[in-house]
Specification:
By secondary structure, this protein is mainly beta. It has one domain (about 5-110): Alpha-Beta Complex (Quinone Oxidoreductase, Chain A, domain 1), CATH 3.90.180. About 10% of the residues lie in helices and about 30% in strands. It has helices at about 45-50, 95-100; strands at about 5-10, 20-25, 30-40, 65-70, 85. The strands form two sheets. It has a three-stranded antiparallel sheet, with no helix packed on it. A two-stranded antiparallel ribbon has the order 1-2. The longest helix has 8 residues, at about 45-50. Keywords: Metal-binding, Oxidoreductase, Zinc.
Length: about 110
C-alpha cells in the first residue's frame, strides 16, 4: 500500500526547503519502511545543502534519524512493524566482522 506523508524536500543547493506531500511505495524484498519521528542535519547534509558536495536533486536530507518500523518487505527478519529503530546511512550486511562487532558500523562489503 502506497502511503502519503510530508517531507522537507531540497530542490537544489542553497535553496530553501519545500514542505511537500510525497508518496512512499511499500517496501520491496529486503527493505524496511520507517515512520521517521525525529531527525537532525549533520555536516554531510550541510555539504549537500550548500553545494559543497555533489548531490542528485531533489533530495531528502536528515539521515541521522529515529523512527518506528511501519512495514517490512519480504525476507526481512531482523525487525518487525512497531520496532523502534535508528536507520544508518551506510548499508549493513549484518554478517561481516565489522557488522558483528558491537562498536562497528562500517560494513566491509560497502568498500
Amino acid at each position: 500500500l502506497v502511503i502519503k506523508c510530508k517531507a522537507a524536500v531540497l530542490w537544489g543547493p542553497r535553496q530553501p526547503f519545500s514542505i511537500e506531500e510525497v508518496e512512499v511505495a511499500p517496501p520491496k524484498a529486503g527493505e524496511v519502511r520507517i515512520k521517521i519521528m525525529a531527525t537532525g542535519i549533520c555536516h554531510i547534509d550541510d555539504h549537500a545543502i550548500t553545494g559543497a558536495m555533489p548531490a542528485r536533486f531533489p533530495v531528502f536530507v536528515g539521515h541521522e534519524a529515529a523512527g518506528i518500523v511501519e512495514s517490512i518487505g519480504e525476507g526481512v527478519t531482523t525487525v518487525k512493524p512497531g520496532d523502534k529503530v535508528i536507520p544508518l546511512c551506510l548499508p549493513q550486511c549484518g554478517k561481516c566482522s565489522t557488522c558483528m562487532h558491537p562498536k562497528g558500523n562500517w560494513c566491509v562489503k560497502t568498500e
